[in-house]
Design a protein that fits this description.
heterodimer; A: 537 residues; alpha+beta; seven-stranded antiparallel beta sheet; six-stranded antiparallel beta sheet; 11 helices; 29% strand; elongated; B: 316 residues; mainly alpha; 10 helices; 74% helix
Chain lengths: 537, 316
């Protein structure tokens, strides 16, 4: 973004008419790369980012977007068409930053060329009247002009000024010195680093992938890195499912510690990688595997349930219950669609499927309320309601694995059942402690064997995060150089006094200083240089 | 210890209130001519070396206003010590850095703001007239903090139990404190400019007794230029590094991140606008004030209105 005064008076009109299309293009480009446009675009970018914090965003939390659609059925579709639920991937947000970065490129590339030229050039000639500069000093006379001039240059070079000495037509020696190129270097570094960050973010989105997975403890519940094994996943545009690195994880241990108030103290997961290497990781210390990082996001309990149907056939299921509060009151469902198969006919009756729905409380309170009072398992209880009938899973439609199909219950295809003596409909949920068995009206039994912990994991690969970090760090260094650096010039003129013209002989040394940016400390620096030159003579 | 921290907090607010009253007293009764003249001279002197031939500024006559102002500075230092005491006792009670929730965070940010004010004051005694506004900001900020954001002392949740907690949060506190304090000279620069242009309606009347516009403008820029790289490091480097370790992704478009991004862009616009000669200094300073508004939004608004990954910053 070029820092130039807008020219009010246009230069003399060109002798011949320019091609109007070319002129339009050129003027648009100039307009786009002007500082004013860049400022407006920057400000627009800030404003455009606001809706993303106000409205729920799909990539952040898709459930809350669905909630918003339910709460505002009229407004939501319109907002959706405007891309308001994925602001940072929307066309208009992209338009702002693409324009901004085009403007940036159009500005910093010519400036880079200018700066390279400036770095190779020697400082300019001293102005005729040094006393017109913001800083000016006259030094005591020295004996010999050439020696004095080289002494001045030596002092300046020692203080890391870039110096050019010249002899003027009247025989006077001048030293022009310039310093503070780091300001522009830093400024350019900052802007190019921003470009690197943008490119890094873009390529990261193309070549990165991520998946979420709920992993229950136990050798029978291991997971291998393939797309189908994730509960939810996103692949970058240039990533194929076959490109995912090969590894398998099995949760062998999960430890959660809590304060007496129930506030969590620490979480630690231990996994077996590829059935041979044991690794432990925790919330702020992810498991770094070649080609993927595994972060621990959350945890919970998975009750182990053994169902014995009316024909005596047993099935055991480990069903994760999702925590809904900080005390781990957890909700879930256990379905047994392939039960009550008559051994004589060997026919599966889809109206004899069984499902259990309810809450698991790791520590039940004394007041009997259906919410846990402590997140660890001090007094665990499982409250379940049993249903028999058609679970509605045979249609092949995807449904929630954490709730029963409400439509099947309201249509009467799935009926609530209970044990003998318990009222069939609207019975209170049955209470089960670990090891207890619940016998239903038809003689089938449900045993609550206990629980296993589970961990929710985020597996992610972002190939460009090192590039983005390097860009950000270089950008910060450049930013500091450009904010705290100051471009400034100092000139010295050593003139031999003309004894013939009535002057006393010897030389007169004059100094002038010009800060090229707003720099309050320049006067002190100038005074310091002048004193050093005096001391050196 | 937690109880002591709460009592110190109440005393801190009272002390800032007393500071404010003293500064207001000086503002109202201070003899404009002496103080202002001395102030302007000293301010120029701090920017450029004072030429030797200028006589030292005449000692301001002992006026009632001046004495009240000096008492104000004394109480201000006392208030700062009480403020520090509140933070330290809070940290000791919780056995960790006192930055674990919104209440403690604002307590720390305002402490940094207060320290930067006294540092600026010690180097440029002439800006003491700004004290009324800084003390007012402190009283409001801490009062609101105690009323709506108070949280009992508690340990850290595991997600915060990381060395990044110290790095990320401390730089953000430092940067936010300085940026928030930077809004005081910014606002007064706009008021002073309006006053110098002959505007005599309410906010501009405050400009009668503040330092010269150019001094305020330069102070605004230097505070922002100092805090901006710090904020960049804290919010856009240390934050994403921690996020990568904790949540697996360095940038999550969480509401706090979005607003930090917005603040960063707005302050970047301010710095660009100030470096552009064709943009008026008043326009640039307005951008700094918009930046201040986005910082406040991030400190209070995001915690109270939105739910996000930074939710341990929730009030109460």
């Amino acid at each position: 973004m070029t820092v130039v005064e807008e020219r009010t008076a246009a230069p003399a009109p060109p002798p011949r008419r320019a091609n109007p299309v070319w002129a339009l293009l050129r003027n648009s480009w100039r307009q786009l790369t002007s500082m004013r446009t860049a400022l407006v675009l920057l400000f627009l970018l800030a404003v455009a980012a606001i809706p993303g914090s106000v409205l729920p965003q799909r990539p952040v939390n898709i459930e809350r977007v669905a909630d918003y659609f339910r709460a505002h059925p009229d407004l939501a579709p319109t907002l959706d068409r405007l891309g308001m639920f994925d602001v940072y991937a929307s066309a208009w947000f992209a338009a702002v930053y693409v324009l901004l970065f085009t403007s940036l490129v159009g500005c910093v590339v010519p400036r880079l060329a200018d700066h390279v030229r400036a770095l190779r050039n020697v400082p300019p000639e001293a102005p005729k009247r040094l006393d017109r500069l913001p800083q000016h000093a006259v030094l005591p006379p020295a004996a010999e002009a050439t020696a004095a001039a080289s002494a001045v240059a030596r002092v300046l070079r020692k203080r890391r000024w870039r110096v050019a000495t010249r002899q003027e037509e009247d025989g006077a020696w001048t030293a022009s010195a310039e310093k503070g190129y780091v300001k522009e270097t830093g400024n350019l570094l900052f802007h190019f680093a921003l470009l690197a960050v943008l490119i890094g973010v873009g390529f990261g989105a193309w070549y990165g992938w991520h998946g979420n997975r709920l992993l229950v403890e136990g050798p029978d519940r291991g997971f291998c890195n393939s797309l189908t094994q994730y509960d939810e996943s996103t692949l970058g545009a240039r990533v194929d499912a076959a490109d995912l690195p090969q590894f398998c994880l099995q949760l062998t241990d999960f430890r959660a510690e809590f304060q007496d108030t129930g506030q969590p103290k620490s979480f630690r997961a231990t996994v077996l990688v590829d059935s041979r290497e044991t690794r432990t990781f925790s919330v702020n210390d992810p498991l770094r595997l070649p080609g993927a990082t595994v972060n621990l996001l959350g945890h919970g309990y998975a009750p182990v349930l053994r169902f014995t149907d009316r024909f005596g056939v047993q099935q055991t299921k480990v069903v994760p219950f999702l925590p809904r509060d900080g005390m781990f009151t957890s909700e879930g469902v256990a379905t047994f669609p392939d039960v009550n198969i008559d051994p004589k006919t060997d026919k599966r009756d889809e109206n004899l499927q069984v499902g259990f729905e309810g809450v698991y409380l790791p520590t039940v309170g004394t007041d009997g309320r259906p919410s846990s009072v402590y997140p660890a398992e001090r007094n665990p209880v499982l409250f379940l309601t049993a249903y028999r009938g058609n679970l509605g899973v045979d249609a092949g439609l995807p449904g929630s694995v954490y709730a029963l199909d409400r439509a099947q219950i309201s249509s009467g295809k799935l009926k609530q059942v209970g044990g003998p003596g318990e009222v069939g409909n609207n019975a209170r949920p049955h209470e089960l402690k670990p090891g207890e068995t619940w016998t239903l009206d038809d003689g089938s039994k449900l045993e609550f064997l206990g629980t296993r912990p589970f961990a929710t994991l985020a597996v992610r690969h972002d190939p460009t995060k090192t590039l983005v970090l390097a860009g950000a760090v270089l950008g910060l260094l450049g930013l500091m150089a450009s904010l705290y650096g100051h471009r400034r010039r100092i000139f010295f003129r050593v003139r031999a006094l003309d004894a013939d013209a009535g002057e006393s002989g010897g030389t007169v040394i004059e100094a002038g200083g010009l800060p090229r940016t707003d720099y309050p400390g320049f006067a002190d620096e100038f005074a310091g240089v002048v004193t050093a030159v005096q001391g050196d003579e | 210890m937690a109880e002591l921290s709460n009592q110190l907090m109440a005393l801190t607010v009272l002390a800032y209130l007393a500071t404010m009253i003293c500064y207001a007293g000086e503002y109202a009764f201070g003899t404009r001519s002496h103080i202002a003249r001395a102030a302007t001279r000293q301010l120029v002197g701090s920017g450029a070396p004072v030429p030797d031939d200028v006589p030292p500024p005449p000692v301001a006559e002992k006026s009632r206003g001046n004495t009240i102002g000096q008492v104000g500075v004394g109480i201000n230092v006392l208030a700062l010590l009480l403020h520090l005491g509140t933070l330290v006792t809070r940290g000791v009670a919780a056995d960790r850095m006192p930055w674990g929730n919104m209440y403690e965070f604002i307590l720390s940010v305002s402490f940094v703001g207060s320290v930067s004010w006294l540092l600026v004051l010690s180097r440029r005694p002439g800006v003491r007239h700004l004290g009324l506004f800084t003390a007012l900001t402190m009283v409001v900020l801490l009062g609101v903090n105690g009323l709506i954001a108070y949280t009992p002392v508690g340990p850290l949740v595991p997600a915060l139990n990381s060395y990044w907690y110290v790095i990320h949060v401390s730089t953000i506190i430092l940067a936010s404190g300085i940026l928030l304090f930077g809004a005081v000279p910014a606002a007064l620069f706009l008021i002073k400019t309006g006053y110098d242009q002959g505007k005599r309606r309410f906010p501009y009347t405050l400009g009668k007794r503040v330092p010269a516009a150019a001094t305020l403008e330069r102070l605004t820029f230097r505070l922002h230029a100092f805090a901006f790289p710090l904020f960049t490091f804290g919010a856009l480097i240390a934050g994403p590094l921690w996020a990568e370790a904790s949540w697996g992704r360095y940038w999550n478009w969480d509401p706090k991140e979005v607003w930090a991004f917005i603040s960063w862009i707005v302050y970047a616009t301010y710095l660009h606008a100030r470096a552009t000669p064709s943009v008026k200094r008043t326009t640039a300073t307005w951008l700094a004030l918009i930046g201040f508004a986005t910082m406040l939004m991030n400190l209070f608004g995001v915690n109270l209105f939105f739910e996000g990954l930074h939710s341990y910053a929730n009030a109460g």
